[in-house]
């Protein structure tokens, strides 16, 4: 995995998340683990609005929020953490890809590397 991946994908031990959201993302053709992970993260944050959260962050700055992302995919080593982190408009984003999700035939018969869909599951934790 490359990119933003400090912190092991979780809040530091002395901090607790104030918010958790889950999402599922799918790459239908091409078996792209990163694309599925990005879609899972977008689903999680796309239905959420936390306008008052910055008032709870001690500095008052949204960029100081800690955003811990755990994404489960069949091949975690193929997830580009920086690309997944890029889905967030602000915060210090830490991405941890783990084994999970699902790889299943997509019915195309296109051959290895193209004939399966990839399903990713994401957990987004926000704190400070």
Give the number of domains: 1
Low-confidence stretches: 1-9
Question: Mean pLDDT, rounded to whole units?
Answer: 88
What is the number of beta strands?
Answer: 5
The number of distinct helices, counting runs of at least 4 residues, comes to: 2
Radius of gyration: 15 Å
User: The CATH topology is what?
Assistant: 60s Ribosomal Protein L30, Chain: A
Find the CATH superfamily: Tubulin/FtsZ, C-terminal domain
Give the biggest sheet: 5 strands, mixed
CATH architecture grouping: 2-Layer Sandwich
**Strand portion:** 25-35%
Order of helices and strands: EHEHEEE
Task: Please identify the top-level CATH class.
Answer: Alpha Beta
**Rough outline:** elongated
Roughly how many Å apart are the termini? 24 Å
Structure commentary:
There is one protein chain. About 15% of the residues lie in helices and about 30% in strands. Helix 2 links the parallel strand 2 and strand 3. It is built from 2 helices and 5 strands. It is α+β, with helices and mostly antiparallel strands. The protein has a single domain, classed as Tubulin/FtsZ, C-terminal domain (60s Ribosomal Protein L30, Chain: A), CATH 3.30.1330.20. The N terminus is likely disordered.
């Amino acid at each position: 995995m490359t990119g933003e991946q400090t912190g092991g994908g979780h809040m530091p031990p002395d901090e607790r998340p104030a918010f958790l959201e889950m999402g599922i993302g799918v790459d239908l053709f091409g078996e792209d683990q990163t694309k599925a992970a990005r879609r899972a993260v977008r689903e999680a944050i796309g239905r959420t609005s936390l306008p008052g959260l910055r008032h709870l962050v001690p500095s008052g700055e949204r960029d100081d929020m800690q955003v811990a992302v755990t994404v489960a995919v069949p091949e975690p080593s193929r997830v580009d953490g920086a690309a997944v982190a890029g889905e967030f408009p602000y915060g210090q984003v830490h991405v941890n890809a783990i084994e999970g999700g699902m790889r299943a035939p997509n019915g195309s018969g296109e051959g290895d590397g193209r004939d399966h869909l990839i399903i990713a599951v994401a957990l987004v934790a926000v704190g400070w």
